[in-house]
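The records we work with from here on pair a chain with its fold. Each token is a code from a learned vocabulary of local backbone shapes. A record is reproduced here so that you can trace the correspondence yourselves:

_____
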Amino acid sequence: MRKRKNPFKGRQFTSEVILWSVRWYLQFPISYRDLELMLRDRGVSVDHTTLYRWIQAYAPELERRLRPHLRPTNGSWRVDETYLKVKGRWVYLYRAVDSRGQTIDFRLSTRRDAQAAKRFFRKALARPNTVNPRTITVDRNAAYPKAVADMKRDKQLWRFARLRQVKYLNNIVEQDHRRVKRLVRPGLGFRRFRTAWRTLVGYETLAMMRKGQVKGIGGDDIVAQAAFMNALFNVAA
């Protein structure tokens, strides 16, 4: 087996400091400058621009390493999209949770139409911990019926999957949007689509851990979560 490349090679700071910073930024509503001060209080001097680079580098890598450890989600999908600003323009964050509030998947898109919905559904279905849905609950967005019909026709979606356009049943995913918005707010928006996506991947990944979606790790056990994250990167506790 080929040895995995050390993701911390060449960094000025230790892997422990980097992972601590990444975990705290992605888990709590703080800015890069807030985190810079928190680290300084602990005797570590890191510029906020360096912290930004760490998030961009390690948030997607964290998701990639964590995905195989997720518990299966169920077949009752609650799908919705929320709005975020990137460089002053609105973009759409497609998100899906199951009936227990467990995150199924997410996708950032510049468009809100049937094609964007299909891309999101295909991405969610490709995850190893998801199942073909029995029900898909959405709002009154006309793009969803077309997307579901097209995917059933192309045999990408179970033909007996039931689409429900009932807004109040989607309260669970709409409430979940608030957590994302709360984390985004201290950063005062994003300047680039790629930057936004990489940061959002980190927010969603840490949220899955806090929801107890990682096998063998409690959602409230922050100590075990920190140890698990270190283990993912082969960092000694």
The CA atoms of residues 59 and 202 lie 4 Å apart. The first strand starts at residue 76 and ends at 86.
